[in-house]
Design goal:
The structure is a homodimer of 145-residue chains. Chain A has 145 residues and is an alpha+beta fold. The first copy, chain A, has a single domain, classed as HIT family, subunit A, CATH 3.30.428.10. Chain A is built from three helices and five strands; from the N terminus they run αβββαββα. Chain A has helices at residues 6-11, 56-77, 124-144, and strands spanning 19-22, 26-30, 40-44, 81-88, 101-106. In chain A, strands 1-2-3-5-4 form a five-stranded antiparallel β-sheet. In chain A, strand 1 (19-22) and strand 2 (26-30) form a beta hairpin. In chain A, helix 2 (56-77) packs across helix 3 (124-144). Chain A is globular and about 40 Å long. The A-B interface holds A 51-52, 54, 56-57, 59-64, 66-68, 70-71, 74, 79-94, 104, 106-108, 110, 145 and B 51-52, 54, 56-57, 59-64, 66-68, 70-71, 74, 79-94, 104, 106-108, 110, 145. Strand 4 (81-88) of chain A pairs antiparallel with strand 4 (81-88) of chain B, so a sheet runs across the interface.
């Protein structure tokens, strides 16, 4: 754990966040300023700054989890598509220096003038409701896969 | 193989593309209209439309390869950061219906007015030169990892 890291602090429950799901290796968190409702983050519990610093096998395991969460998110939100994004380094717009993968549900109507949707502020209650919906689907797919 | 699929056709060498590297499971291809020089795609040889259709273990293996290619691309381009992006479905801007992961080198100066770099057309010769540079680093990291 890195003491000053926001995600490490949420993993340790010394800082608040809307947690969707967690197991021994990963934590799924609702993004605080989502591009679309349901936008969440898949985060390895072990602190690495970027994907490139992780061992190969842990990177593979992280994306096996991403695969599961993406399926669950599409189902929970009835999304038309899903974007998976992962930024490494300030030049790539990484803001929090702890590896995280964005899972962003996309909808046919969510662009304006051909531009990506903007980040939004969603009431905490709505964020918690979305987290519950996604968690249900994670539990469903976990049994299936 | 899907007969009408551009990536399947490139994998089968019935259509041209600037191939960076390949092994039994994956092909690495230079993007035809890169956001930045060095932008390449990691493609599973087996035809799946989206990541969600792949078996979990194959998704994990795909991203173990992504991890390797991202490391090699950063080194080859001396990039300041790297973006990894994967689009599923038209609503998420997926254009070619065969799973592919974008590896996009990022540089501190590559944004204008806070907007992502635009797609570019790069001469074939330059694209081949960049592919050679990335291939060298892939071979280097493959031995190391």
């Amino acid at each position: 754990m890195a003491e000053e890291c926001t995600f490490c602090r949420i993993i340790q429950r010394v800082e608040e966040g809307v947690v969707v799901y967690e197991d021994d290796e990963h934590l799924i968190l609702m993004d605080k300023h989502p591009y679309n409702p349901g936008h969440n983050l898949v985060i390895p519990k072990k602190h690495y700054k970027t994907l490139l610093e992780m061992p190969k096998s842990e990177a593979g395991k992280l994306f096996e989890k991403v695969w599961l969460i993406a399926k669950a998110t599409v189902k929970a939100l009835d999304a038309d598509g899903i974007h998976i994004g992962q930024n490494n380094g300030r030049a790539a717009r990484q803001v929090i220096d702890h590896v995280h993968v964005h899972i962003i549900p996309r909808f046919y109507e969510d662009e304006q003038n051909g531009r990506w949707p903007s980040r939004k502020t969603i009431p905490l209650e709505e964020s918690r409701k979305l987290a519950d919906m996604i968690r249900q689907q994670i539990l469903h797919f976990k049994e299936e896969c």
